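Predict the assembly for these two chains.
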Amino acid sequence: MSAFAAFASGLLFGTGLLVSGMADPAKVKAFLDVTGRFDPSLAVVMASALAVAFVAYAIAKRRSASFTGRAFDLPASRTLDARLFGGAIVFGIGWGIAGVCPGPALVLLGAGHAAGLVFVVAMLGGMVAFEVVERRGRAKLVPVAEDA
Amino acid sequence: MPPIGFDVSMPSIGLAGLLVGIGTRYGAGCTSGHGICGISRLSPRSIAATLCFMAAGIATVFVTRHVLS
């Protein structure tokens, strides 16, 4: 049931990205091009998605487990740190260069676009590079980091 | 199939993918993670991250489209 729910959610999400135009890099860049050929229509997509998710989280808040019986795993951190800002800025630069973010990248890969494949491989490379740097950093500060 | 249009070279797409991969991990989220799920939970981290990546995306498109070319 859990695997089916995951499959159905992914299918719905991917279809939504494709139909709304979020998976079209030209449209995403037009949304970000506020001083040029600005196309604000993706703001409507985002607002609609937020409205749906807001209701979904309101329902989730009143439950102790999901409809498939799984416990909710929501991020608890509320601190704003340099990593959050730095990461978001690096992400935004990449997003602005290609007009592609992780969800749509998978849609483009599934649609058989060579550019989608290049983007996803590079993106996974970036994630692996992050893991490697993180593990090295952690290995260096083993005894002290436990309390920090 | 809805239209899909790229206006950058393959090396630029590769560079963009790399930055998106690194940024997603450091910033602990992406457009859907922070922008949709996080904001709809009213997470202050997600609101801050979304403002940051929107600003960075707008600045990048401005520089690549209207300054460099």
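DSSP finds seven helices and no strands in chain A. Residues 2-145 of chain A form one domain.
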